[in-house]
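Exercise 7. Given the encoded structure of a 151-residue chain, write a plausible sequence.
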């Protein structure tokens, strides 16, 4: 630790950390916006895929199990669902978040909510997403995403 109590590689308040936070906020906002099909919006799977680092993983937790996806395997069925007309007026948004940045690594815990109309029935939901991100030469990218919907 340095004299200021900051671990080597960590950022001091008001320095690069503010820029990192803004960039991470932008990645996460773009991630949530990618699944919005209100008012005729359509998802862009290529843009969504570019938010992830090579070899990233996505884990969906439900019940006592966990399903692991590649970003592509995670994205494809969701884009199909959003484009099929089965799920309309859908969007999810971040309610609250905490972000920790240490050098080129960040962890974001996001509480989110979602709403839409599936097969004519309105629904709402909420859950938690855990993002692990890495600062790469091309900017901050998601290296792991794990989520669980509230029961």
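Solution.
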């Amino acid at each position: 630790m340095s004299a200021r109590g900051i671990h080597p590689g960590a950022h001091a308040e008001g320095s690069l950390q503010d820029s990192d936070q803004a960039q991470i906020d932008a990645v996460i906002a773009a991630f949530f916006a990618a699944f919005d099909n209100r008012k005729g919006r359509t998802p862009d799977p290529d843009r969504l895929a570019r938010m992830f680092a090579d070899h990233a993983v996505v884990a969906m937790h439900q019940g006592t199990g966990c399903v692991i996806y590649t970003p592509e395997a995670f994205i494809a069925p969701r884009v199909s669902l959003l484009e099929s007309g089965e799920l309309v007026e859908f969007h999810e948004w971040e309610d609250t978040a905490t972000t920790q940045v240490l050098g080129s690594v960040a962890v974001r815990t996001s509480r989110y909510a979602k709403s839409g109309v599936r097969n004519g029935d309105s629904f709402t939901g909420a859950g938690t997403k855990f993002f692990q991100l890495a600062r790469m030469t091309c900017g901050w990218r998601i290296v792991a995403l794990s989520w669980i919907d509230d029961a």
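Remark. The chain is about 25% helix and 50% strand. Students should compare their own answers with the one above.
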